## 1
Amino acid sequence: MDIDPSKILVRYNVQKEKAQTPEEMAAEMYPSAEPARTIAVAIFEGEEDDVVEALEKALASGADPVKLIDDTLMPGMDIVTKLYDQGVIFLPNVMMSADAMLEGIDLCKEKAGTSAKAKGKIVCHVAEGDVHDIGKTIVAALLRAAGYDVVDLGRDVPVDEVIAAVKKENPMMLTGTALMTTTMYAFKEINDRLLESGIKIPFQCGGGAVNQDFVVTYELGVYGEEAADAAKMADAILSGKGLAQLKEHFHKH
Amino acid sequence: MVKRYTSQEYKAADDMIFGKSIYPVKSELGLEVGAGYVTAEVNYAPRPEAGVSKEKLVSEYRRLTTDIMARAVQIGFPAVSLETEHVEQMTNNPSWGGEIAHVQKTILEEYHEEYGIKCGLRHTPGDIRENRDLLALIGPKYDTLMESFEAVAEGGADFLSIETMGGKEVLDYAILRNDIPGLVYSIGCLGSTDMTMIWQDIRKIADKKGRIAAGDTDCAQANTAMFIAGGLLDKNLAHTIAIIARVIAGARTLAGYEAGAQGPGKDCGYENTIVKSITGCPISQEGKTSTCAHADVMGNLVMQCCDLWSNESVEYHGEFGGTSVQCWSETLNYDAALLNVATETGNAKLLRDMLVLSDKYRDPQGYILAYDNAYKIGSAIVKDGNDLYLRSKNAALACVDILNAADSKKLVMSKFEKNALANAKAALDSMTDEADNFMSDSLEKYKAEVAVFRPDDNYKF
């Protein structure tokens, strides 16, 4: 028994696929000047060695390492992020590109002897009692790729430690992920403790068990349905959006 | 030294059907799994606030168990099985899990005595061997885990299961980088090595307590890949890569049976049809009736060879139709009733094939897991069944070949899926046939690249 499946299902991903390949679309976005172009290509292809080689060549000819970050690495990564947001490339490409970019940033920082200026600082953690951290890993990588300084507290992080880190780092946003319903309750406690301390930063929460209904029950919570929402939320904060506006935009249900 | 499978117990794919397995198992309260009928396996999670104390948790499980049983007899279902997946407190404090198993079993006994309803109870301690910083597969946490198995077996759990985490530290790194050798290493080699250890010990406990060492799942890895891959329009992982992870998981989940598991395999092991083709042991599956927990792209197809039919998990709370466990257990039971009607009327294979065809071409994952192709993957695994590396690589290669040979007018893949498949094929073709070389090269590579990978502490190579 077999069937012509066209009457019972539609592969919308095939229907919607762009005619251009990701490589062709990226090529249209590469900067024309060197070394920015070579570095952008290497980042897009996730080739760490090529990024480092191009940077070393530029540094040897007297380029300023901080300017290399701002003028070559970040714009190169920006192409990758844009293509990901457009649904043209997939997460592993972003992760490999981010690896390559971060390797380049490390090299430039080492040469500059100072840390480059990030768009903002964000503290990330996985709820106490929860060791499922691949979602947090993705969130942290996408935030770094978008130019944010990420303080990654890891997984199974006690509430006290989250509060202490927020007080110490003074971030623009806190993120929390949880896979289990029994661990996500820590988010409420974090919310209460932050408010007690007079800290009112957006607390982006997401992960397997977490849903919007739960997150709206505490004041600082903003629900992030997708990992990619984290960087968009941070950008929205930078553009002046407050808690109410973030909830309005990111609470889709 | 465990005996590996080098041949399949099923001699033809068409022999595989829902409700029947070659080696059925029987619970204390008369439930036979794989003996000719499908039974609902109801899964649930306590409300978040129930986790604050042992008393609250025990009370929560008492209520929800009673709810499920009450609904089963109200609607007239002949059998039901329950699965309690532990929240971490229940495994870290073995007496908690033990008491909950006892409370649940007592309720099942009362219903069994009163109404004759056949019942089964599975307990699935959490794999607590993952510390905050890294996996600690061997050591004090392992001992606590074994104590938990002892306690739930003593408390009355018929079926003992776990979702082991072995290999996950490398998988989490590899899956985000399309690293095919990394999938083979993490799932096929590290995961199977860990399972070979743990399932021998679970079997000893099961035998000592007169219980059944049921089965494992590659939830930690293949389901991670499946969930990251998501729906058709998600852009986080090619579905062709997710199904490669899944078939390697077939080789991994098999290792549990080789070390003593007898079935029913765990519900979320979408690789279970592959495994059933090799072991002949009963399996639980989840799909269209687990939408309370997650979405997948093969909700009907995975019913094809199930012996238990599960809802994966639902938080205990009120719905219009009763409590959530009552609603979902009712739906599961009606699903099972339909499958059993098909069996009773001689239409089982027709219904199986209809279920399969509704999803077979929906996605590369369903195409490979359709029982005819799953059987071929099983054949590829047992071809070099004694070599954990080669059998995993064989499964991956067979998967790629089957997808490439598919009728492109029926299984329509995007350029992206095809490119990912081509890259995977190239990666597999460049891999060695020598397990020792692969293992030593991978050991060095991932020790250097994955900070939390501690092979010496975790794997008895």
## 2
Amino acid sequence: MTANADVLVPVVDRGESLEELVHAAEEHTRGGISNPVLGMILFIASEVMFFAGLFAAYFNIRSNAPVWPPLGNVEFNLRGHVLLPAILTLMLVTSSVTCQIGIWAIRRGDRKGLMRAFVVTIVLGILFLSGQAYDYTTLGFGINDGPFGSTFYTLTGFHGAHVFAGVLMLGVVLYRGMAGQFSARHHDAVEAASLYWHFVDVVWICLFTLLYILG
Amino acid sequence: MIRPRTTLLVAFLFIVVAAVYYALSRDAGGTTMLVALGIAMGLLSYTLALGSPKG
């Protein structure tokens, strides 16, 4: 007799239907977290270490520099250039809120609500990437302009790549949602994508605070 | 079975190590890595404990 059959015996005695028996067996053996969400959380944990390496490099270079921002031919003045990044931050935070609204909608079984919320989230993500690309053209320094330029573009560039990946992920979820693949009970991919999006948002808040506010 | 909340002690341990390391060395880079390691390990252990089968 298998482990699941052991579970089913007392349920059969109560005269439950086959569907209820299977559901009971699933509930008994299943963990408290779905595989897609578990995988995404483990992936995010590895991403925490990835960004930690970049932040640590920034702190190391900064603490070893006699003057920060370094003096040179190019002026590094991010504090005087904070308006557009602040608007972009607001956009990304708002996109996290709309993403969560989508999650709440699908938990209620509201597919249209999920679609609407995720369309807004994706549009805000694309606007963020466009704004960041424009911001790069107005900064006045490049990735080759010393340690400041290289760390700045490495940190924000890798974050931008993650936002791009998040937009793609949300796009796939949106497509699957339009195909009717999600319901109130089955929407693990939506939960996993939203976790990733929130993580990307948190990383940007750290970057914005470090690079633009603290200087 | 380990309770998920108990696994957060792993994160706390790394944060303590990070605090001691910073107090001794004043090295912001290494401290960042240790703090992030604490967050990552806490997240990993909490999730794995939470996701382990009930039966």
